[in-house]
Amino acid sequence: MxxxxxxxxxxxxxxxxxxxxxxxxxxxxxxxxDGREVLLLCSNNYLGLAGHPALIEASCDATSRxxxxxxxxxxxSGTMELHEQLEARIADFKGxxxxxxxxxGYAANTGILQGLAGPGDLIFSDALNHASIIDGCRLxxxxxxxxxxxxxxxxxxxxxxxxxxxxxxxxxVSDGVFSMDGDLAPLPELVALKExxxxxxxxxxxxxxxxxxxSGRGSAERFGCLDRxxxxxxxxxxxxxxxxxxxxxxxxxxDTLINRSRSFIFSTSLPPxxxxxxxxxxxxxxxxxxxxxxxALENNRQIFVEGLRRGGLDLGESVTQIVPxxxxxxxxxxxxxxxxxxxxxxxQGIRPPTVPVGQCRLRATLxxxxxxxxxxxxxxxxVRILAELPR
Length: 391
Ligand code: PMP
Prior knowledge:
Structural class: alpha/beta
Number of helices: 14
Pathway: Cofactor biosynthesis; biotin biosynthesis
GO molecular function: 8-amino-7-oxononanoate synthase activity; pyridoxal phosphate binding
Domain Aminotransferase class I/classII large: 37-382
Low-confidence stretches: none
Enzyme class: transferase
Helix content: 40-55%
Radius of gyration: 21 Å
Bound molecules: 4'-deoxy-4'-aminopyridoxal-5'-phosphate
Family: Belongs to the class-II pyridoxal-phosphate-dependent aminotransferase family. BioF subfamily.
């Protein structure tokens, strides 16, 4: 215990101690923190569906009809009709033969990579891929080649270098939207490379699903290459407002994972209330309301980004609702977050290992149901607070 205390104290001194912030009341564009209403600028509830009446009603209805818990893992007695309905809906959404629901995005990425790759296989992974992909690569036991972020020339060199001694399966894996930078993977180029080198391509579209593309099918729809991705991973806890995750892919991939994926096999399946809400979320994403929510989100994004850029801030390569404001070291980052909260804006500071050392940031995320004028005012406030900080 003394050692733990010392380690925690050291983290505190470095400005690296993480603590939890409680949000009172329901999730929405404004939430109650420390007894005060503040503008929420760090939620992945991008379309505002987490508190949507249709999802709440669908969740309550599924719970009252089917019970609170699923009672078992999928391979025992925990596969309910709602799991099958949701999987059929997801496969239809992505245009694949099948889909498999996982208990979270973290469980999906670790389970998919561990289930599909093993010793003797090779995984090519973008340097800024999400931690759950990194952990999945480790769990798989495959050899992992990390390529520089979005650098397709470097990836091709690495593929070429490995080609002469090739054996086993090759998998290229990338976030579709990078979670801490809001930039996009160059999917058309990744597709061309995976076809040229006969690898499988897995795209984690946790932050693109529901949001990007004319119909919200994600980053691959935006690039017009939905049918060229082998493994579509997505989450239900962000734009879809629920919880859980999925893989949409060919039947043999799904059947392999049912047999091999440890996070799928050894865990109680998602409960009815979540599944019912997720089905309602797909209805909304596919409706005129979904399109209107995507348009409102994009409008808010443009207003916010213009405000920050006018104030001289560098937002990197962000082209999505994830807007990184890089602040550098942990202390000024957390001080900026504290001052923003004082002025009514909840915007978390992000520190290593979530982002590289020296690249701490305020990771702002927009929502469809933010009001444009409050987004504009928040951008001004962020510019002002950052200018006030000691350098
Ligand atoms: N992939 C990416 C790119 C993510 O950003 C996240 C969540 N932050 C996950 C996977 C994990 O998803 P979940 O929160 O559902 O576990």
